[in-house]
DNA sequence: TCCAACATACGAAATCTTTCGTTGACGTTA
DNA sequence: TAACGTCAACGAAAGATTTCGTATGTTGGA
């Protein structure tokens, strides 16, 4: 019964994950408060989502205190990479370069960002050539 | 009653869109056959999906023949950019460079692909500098 | 003409997602 | 100790997604 890899988070789940990534391990109330600044959400809605996410293995829960503490079970980077890989397969026929190119032309990246990307790219090419 | 922008396609819808992008305008049977090579899907399932997609405005339908002909209402590029923008907002806090960087490190892009990406990047920087 | 093949339409079931009301447990404090 | 605020648990409802069975209409040949 091989543990399934954690499933792709839904929209509402992703919003919660972003809070957990930014704040670190948090209680339901803390997540709810953070979320409320940008969107209207009921407290029990956030609680239910976190319970579901626990069942799915997307987050882990520390129950040693009365107010349980939730944390993302996967790093931000790892989740983001999985989401990108997913999108690449589903919408770009598995082509990384097509995805990156669309990403570049889809967004108004600033000059600074572009040069930062280029630096990363150069490193990548370096590594390959080696 | 401003026409809503076409909604984000679901997984099953995206699989169909990919067929339409590759084949061009197609009948239900053609889409179904193309899809069947990679996954098991009932004919009426594909038909129903295409009907729903028509309602949503994701595809357009030419009913002048007995076998209706469906086509994507949006270009492949435009849809892909929208999906990337979506993911950027939902998972990357709206940062294009973070997304591109993760995309680069998430995938094993070939050397050829890397240089192609770099060429595009250079053009982008050129344009900006101007 | 009549039938087999193929087409769309329709409805419904199964599942997943999102939301929230209610309940009961637990602590704090007046 | 009794009342109040906070907490997790649970269930249920509403909507979206996916799948497919069945009904019904059309067409091209035998």
Describe it for me?
The structure is a homodimer of 130-residue chains. Chain A is mostly helical and 130 residues long. Chain A is built from 6 helices and 3 strands, in the order αβααββααα. The first copy, chain A, has helices spanning 11-23, 28-36, 43-56, 76-91, 96-106, 111-129; strands spanning 26-27, 59-62, 69-72. The first copy, chain A, has a 3-stranded antiparallel β-sheet. The first copy, chain A, is elongated and about 50 Å long. Chain A binds a DNA duplex (30 and 30 nucleotides) through residues 10-13, 27-29, 41-45, 47-49, 51-52, 63, 66-68.
Enumerate the spans of chain A where pLDDT stays under 50 for 5 or more consecutive residues.
none
Q: Overall pLDDT of chain A, averaged? A: 89
Radius of gyration of chain A: 18 Å
Number of strands of chain A: 3
Largest sheet of chain A: 3 strands, antiparallel
- Assembly type: homodimer
Side-by-side strand order of the widest sheet of chain A: 1-3-2
Helix content of chain A: 55-70%
Largest interface: which pair? A-B, 46 and 46 residues
Class from helix and strand fractions of chain A: mainly alpha
Distance between the termini of chain A: 41 Å
What characteristics describe this protein?
homodimer, 130 residues, mainly alpha, three-stranded antiparallel sheet, 6 helices, 63% helix, 8% strand, elongated, DNA-binding
What's the topology here?
The structure is a homodimer of 130-residue chains.
Chain A: H1 11-23, E1 26-27, H2 28-36, H3 43-56, E2 59-62, E3 69-72, H4 76-91, H5 96-106, H6 111-129
Antiparallel strand pairs in A: 1-3, 2-3
Chain A binds a DNA duplex (30 and 30 nucleotides) through residues 10-13, 27-29, 41-45, 47-49, 51-52, 63, 66-68.
């Amino acid at each position: 019964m091989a543990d399934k890899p954690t499933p792709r988070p839904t929209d509402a789940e992703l919003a919660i994950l972003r809070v957990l990534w930014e704040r670190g391990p948090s209680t339901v109330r803390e997540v709810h408060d953070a979320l409320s600044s940008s969107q209207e959400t009921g407290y029990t809605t956030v609680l239910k989502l976190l319970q579901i996410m626990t069942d799915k293995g997307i987050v882990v829960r520390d129950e040693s205190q009365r107010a349980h503490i939730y944390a993302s079970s996967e790093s931000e980077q790892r989740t983001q990479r999985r989401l990108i890989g997913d999108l690449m397969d589903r919408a770009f026929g598995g082509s990384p370069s097509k995805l990156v190119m669309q990403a570049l032309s889809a967004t108004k990246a600033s000059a600074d960002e572009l040069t930062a990307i280029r630096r990363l790219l150069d490193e990548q090419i370096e590594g390959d050539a080696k």
